[in-house]
Amino acid sequence: MRKVTAFAGLGLAAALVLSGCAAEAEAPADEPTMEQPAPEAEAPMIDTVNSDGANLRAALTALLADHVYLAGAAINQALADGGDLETPAVQAAVAALDENSVEVAALVGSAYPDAEQPFLDSWRSHIPFFVNYTLGQATGDQELADQAVADLNAYAVSFGELINSVVPELPAEAVQAELEMHAVTLLAAIDANIAGDPAYFDLLKEAASHMPMTATALAGGIAANLGLQ
């Protein structure tokens, strides 16, 4: 089998002011009075649901999961249309996938504006490798399929280096490993689709199930880099 070397809630510190009920008769001057000490302020709490870091992680998770399913849909349509990438159905599927790429890049750009276009250019570049692998496997062109795997290997390395150059808290090797897992699982789904194996659907789901881990890694590094909670 091939081997693809692969983002407060401010805790409210409320001082409780206690007032005693006024008595109708004035208390004797020598009667001792007791004051109740104010309670200590509560420690601030971090909102891990609505924080900027959590919102970034959630948005990345959704978009990356969509990426897997949209890629699967485009490849499935291309196979259904006999490998013709120019049919209206295939073109529509490819356009939806590219719109997702633009959305992922825009999310990265919301944190690092100067990195948005380089990220988009890089992200777009790996999608044709999956197409080439599909065409190679479907037509028996092993050289084309093998070259696509090699291209995905090289892409994982270059993408890791790109992300690390923007977010030093994210090691290039860790990002590379996430991309390798993405490639391995999606290629397995493509193989099943070409073979007409019903396991295709479970394998595509498995490929998508890895995206939350990728989103957590990326969002965590960005949050650390920008000081987000």
From TrEMBL:
Annotated signal peptide: 1-25
Origin: domain of life: Bacteria
Keywords: Signal
Protein name, per record: Lipoprotein
Organism: Microcella alkaliphila
